[in-house]
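ok so dumb question maybe but i'm new to this and my supervisor (M.) told me to 'just get the structure for Xanthine phosphoribosyltransferase' and walked off. so i did the thing. is this what she meant?? sequence i used:
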Amino acid sequence: MQLLKDRIIKDGIVKEGNILKVDSFLNHQMDVVLFEEIGKELKRRFSDCQVNKILTIEASGIGIACMTAQQFCVPVVFAKKTKTKNIAGDVYTSKVESFTHGKVYDIIVSKDFLKPEDKVLIIDDFLAEGSALLGLAQLVEDAGAQLVGAAIVIEKGFQEGGARVREKGIRLESLAIIKSMDEKNGIIFK
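this is what came out, is it supposed to look like this??
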């Protein structure tokens, strides 16, 4: 998606440790016009899948998931990283490790919101090591629902996440795949 790649080049900042800072438009301040275009592109790519539920993880994937859900006219479910008092009843849980935060989380989705009849599209902002995406896929499997695919805004193609996800047979659509990046040479796309 050229619009996204152009924005990454213009406003993305490469930080030490394979960190790409895109918080000015993607995951702190959100460019909703860009998000709308992302939603349209993901609808185009997954229009053949009869998606009836979109699943993401809090917090950075929620805005993108909502704009995409608007295109599909379906609800968004987001996995929470902590169980709160307002989640009553049974839940699906999975462990994920955040590359950016260096933490392991138990992610939680109420069993009320993932059902065997669901056709689920997973959406997230980044794919690095693949832990979050595979954790979300585990929730879908535990629910007996059908995972139709996963959509990622930015995939770090030089890290193992994409390969791990594809090896599991999950249809993966990444809007921008970064081949390499460093502070000196910047960002190079595949």
